[in-house]
């Protein structure tokens, strides 16, 4: 409910503002230690990224409630936003977007970690699990850039607004695609952020969508094996429906004005 989100936001904002806050039955304050505030900035930013990786990856609708709080905290406490991007880019290089290259002499495990895979005891996580985590983080990022906390005292410009999504999309399409990954993150990003980008960029947006269909999809197809077709087919279907209707549907989980009365 909207009222619950306000309580969560206020508690985090109070903590970062140096006010005492109740947590796990005790009173805590960042002023209790000289490095307290810097530590909380770092851990909070990490927590937001973890929520994308764990919560949003399993429940797509949760992207917007988490994003609106993260966006509001980012606006009031810019350091959290800087650290959020740092954690996000380390865990999900595709949010940069960037495809790390394997350097000569680099151990395979180190390279797999750079690509975002979890490696434990020399065992790499399953591809499905890896893609699910990347999807969650991309979806959270796509939600954050388009939504602002409605009760901010400043209500200035968005701390990391929609133009970053346009830049991300353009840079993504300048990279040679990766099998499985590229189709997955493009679909996740456009499903969450496509409607907002369409409304802002209009004709330019549709030119980009046509470019994806005519030029970029064939490049993904050329490097995709028969066992990797699932994510590509899902993305192609989404793209075709949008171009046919000349409309990108509102993403599931969008916070409507009535939400804030709950």
From TrEMBL:
Drop me one GO molecular function for this one.
inositol hexakisphosphate binding
Q: Provide the protein's localization.
A: Cytoplasm; Nucleus, Nuclear pore complex
Keyword field? Coiled coil, Cytoplasm, mRNA transport, Nuclear pore complex, Nucleus, Protein transport, Translocation, Transport
A Pfam family assignment: GLE1
Predominant place of localization:
cytoplasm
- Record-linked InterPro entries: GLE1 (IPR012476), GLE1-like_sf (IPR038506)
One CC-aspect GO term = cytoplasm
Could you confirm whether the keyword Iron-sulfur appears in this record?
Answer: no
Q: Biological process GO annotation list?
A: poly(A)+ mRNA export from nucleus; protein transport
Q: Is Mitochondrion given among the entry's keywords? A: no
Q: Which residue ranges run through the membrane?
A: none
Q: Which family does it belong to?
A: Belongs to the GLE1 family.
Q: Describe the function of this protein.
A: Required for the export of mRNAs containing poly(A) tails from the nucleus into the cytoplasm. May be involved in the terminal step of the mRNA transport through the nuclear pore complex (NPC).
Write down what this protein is called: mRNA export factor GLE1
Per the UniProt entry, what species is this protein from, by scientific name?
Answer: Zapornia atra (Henderson crake)
């Amino acid at each position: 409910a909207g009222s619950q989100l306000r309580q969560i936001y206020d508690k985090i904002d109070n903590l970062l503002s140096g006010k005492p806050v109740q947590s796990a039955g005790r009173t805590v304050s960042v002023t209790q230690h000289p490095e307290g505030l810097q530590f909380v900035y770092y851990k909070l930013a990490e927590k937001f990224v973890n929520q994308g990786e764990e919560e949003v990856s399993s429940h797509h609708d949760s992207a917007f409630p988490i994003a609106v709080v993260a966006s509001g905290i980012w606006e009031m406490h810019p350091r959290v936003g800087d650290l959020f991007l740092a954690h996000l880019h380390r865990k999900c290089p595709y949010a940069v977007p960037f495809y790390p290259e394997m350097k000569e002499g680099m151990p395979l495990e180190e390279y797999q970690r750079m690509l975002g895979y979890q490696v434990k005891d020399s065992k790499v996580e399953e591809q499905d699990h890896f893609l699910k985590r990347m999807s969650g983080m991309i979806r959270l990022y796509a939600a954050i850039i388009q939504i602002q906390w409605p009760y901010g005292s400043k209500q200035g410009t968005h701390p990391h607004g929609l133009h970053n999504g346009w830049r991300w999309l353009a840079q993504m399409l300048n990279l040679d695609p990766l099998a499985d990954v590229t189709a997955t993150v493009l679909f996740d990003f456009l499903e969450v952020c496509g409607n907002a980008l369409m409304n802002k960029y209009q004709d330019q947006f549709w030119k980009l969508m046509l470019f994806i269909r005519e030029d970029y999809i064939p490049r993904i197809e050329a490097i995709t094996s028969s066992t990797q077709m699932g994510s590509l087919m899902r993305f192609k279907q989404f793209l075709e429906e949008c171009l046919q209707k000349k409309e990108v549907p509102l993403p599931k989980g969008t916070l409507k004005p009535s939400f804030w009365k709950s």
